[in-house]
Specification:
This protein is α/β, with parallel strands linked by helices and 416 residues long. Helix content is 45%, strand content 15%. It is built from 17 helices and 13 strands. It has helices at 3-18, 36-45, 61-68, 81-94, 105-116, 131-135, 139-144, 161-167, 199-212, 223-230, 234-238, 264-276, 285-297, 302-317, 347-354, 359-365, 391-415, and strands at 46-50, 98-102, 122-127, 147-151, 179-186, 215-219, 243-247, 258-262, 324-325, 335-340, 368-372, 374-375, 381-384. The strands form three sheets. A seven-stranded mixed sheet has the order 2-8-7-6-5-3-4, sandwiched between helices. It has a four-stranded antiparallel sheet with strand order 9-10-13-12, covered by helices on one side. The N and C termini lie far apart (58 Å).
Length: 416
């Protein structure tokens, strides 16, 4: 068997285990077509490519089988064998002493803050565009009594270390100030378009943290994407951190779960924090079995998501007419941020148009494609690739984006 044949066979096998094709019907109210025959053609030919997030993945056949057959026990008592194995495997992968299985990334991050900042009024420093700061409801303040100092997030997801140093509080227990205890980073960086933190930055950050007695926590929801993009083992990245939270339910395809890693003492304290937050689940092995599949089988395939993302980004950059604006150099993993030229339509209007199918599209392309995306911060649009979006899906999404650009050009010519 030659290499090309082997690759095709591998892709077919992966498709059988992890890909579930779905046919979506079009809402007639949102479909601009005329006559019952045209409507029937649209309905029968429509396919959906869901690029809203890598959280929309569904477990494949192998994962569902492992979940159904899991040997379980009470995890609060430490008796669930699948959870225990998952935690050992994750600790080895992270190069850390221990890990803890928790329901979500938000809980994992909050637990880390609670463990590192043990007194109400302690303080953490983090980027002003970080997930913890923007999207987690200020849980560190609400539930842990921890104050946040936001640093300007740079385009690559980092922040200026001199600025960080200038914000560190000194002279504790000065009665006027909180106590600086923790620095949080995000890798890959969601809002900045899946950017990977440079290893040199993490090394310098750890040096600063050690000098001033701070802990470093990494929101590594997409850490495995960063490791694949940099071609390094996850432990190479995490050697610069005291703790990390890694989602199993994004590009790794599990339905639930995050691994929180750190020292044995950190995890012992984390178990207590997890309990008070309601994360002490019982026969959790049913869920943890999916997580084991994620870590054993699905890390390497993240490279496909990166490749499909870059393929789509390149097509947008080369689109004629030139409707889309993006920086190809910033496309590093599975998240793409781009803009539509303001004089054509807003980001909300563009996402609505990409999600709609009309008879004209079916006639021109021979099929209809609903491409789901999110309007994002600053008027941008976000698209995220994952294991339920194939190379074929990516090409269909490209055709749809090109068709929309051509439609807009035609309308602008007619209007002129």
């Amino acid at each position: 068997m030659n290499s090309k044949t082997f690759t095709c066979a591998a892709r077919l096998l992966r498709h059988c285990f992890h890909k579930h094709r779905r046919v979506f019907r079009v809402d007639p109210v949102r479909c601009m077509c005329y006559g019952s025959h045209q409507m029937a053609a649209v309905r029968s030919a429509v396919r959906t490519v869901d690029l809203r997030s890598d959280t929309v993945t569904k477990p494949g056949a192998a994962m569902r089988k492992a979940m159904a057959e899991a040997d379980v026990g009470d995890d609060v008592f430490g008796e669930d064998p699948v959870v225990n194995e998952l935690q050992k495997e994750a600790a080895a992968l992270f190069g850390m002493e221990d890990t803890l299985y928790v329901p979500t990334g938000t809980m994992g991050n909050l637990i880390a803050v609670m463990v590192h900042c043990r007194e109400r009024g302690d303080e953490m420093l983090l980027g002003d565009l970080s997930h913890i700061y923007i999207y987690e409801q200020g849980g560190s303040a609400q539930l842990a009594g921890v104050h946040s100092v936001a640093l300007t997030t740079l385009a690559d997801g980092t922040f200026d270390l001199d600025r960080l140093i200038s914000k560190i509080r000194h002279g504790y227990p000065n009665s006027h100030y909180p106590r600086s205890r923790l620095v949080c980073v995000e890798n890959t960086h969601n809002i900045q378009g899946g950017r990977v933190l440079p290893l040199s930055f993490l090394q310098e950050l750890r040096s600063v943290a050690d000098k001033f007695g701070l802990a470093v926590h990494m929101d590594g929801a997409r850490l495995m994407n960063a490791a694949i993009a940099q071609g390094v083992h996850p432990s190479v990245i995490l050697q610069h951190c005291h703790s990390v939270s890694v989602c199993l339910s994004k590009g790794l395809g599990a339905p639930v779960g995050t691994m929180l890693g750190g020292s044995k003492d950190f995890i012992q304290r984390a178990v207590r924090a997890r309990k008070v937050l309601g994360g002490g689940m019982r026969q959790t092995g049913i869920l943890a079995a999916a997580g084991r599949i994620s870590l054993s089988d699905l890390i390497g395939r993240l490279e496909e998501d990166h490749r499909n993302t870059k393929r789509f980004a390149q097509a947008l950059a080369e689109c004629d007419p030139p409707l889309y604006q993006l920086d190809l150099a910033s496309v590093e993993t599975n998240i793409l941020r781009f803009r539509v030229q303001d004089d054509y339509m807003s980001s909300d209007e563009f996402c609505e148009r990409m999600a709609r199918v009309d008879a004209e599209e079916v006639k021109a392309l021979g099929h209809g494609v609903r491409v789901l995306m999110f309007p994002h911060i600053g008027g941008a649009i976000r698209a995220v690739w994952h294991l339920d979006v194939s190379e074929e899906d990516t090409e269909l999404a490209i055709q749809k984006a090109q068709f929309v650009a051509q439609q807009l050009r035609l309308k602008s010519v007619i209007a002129a």
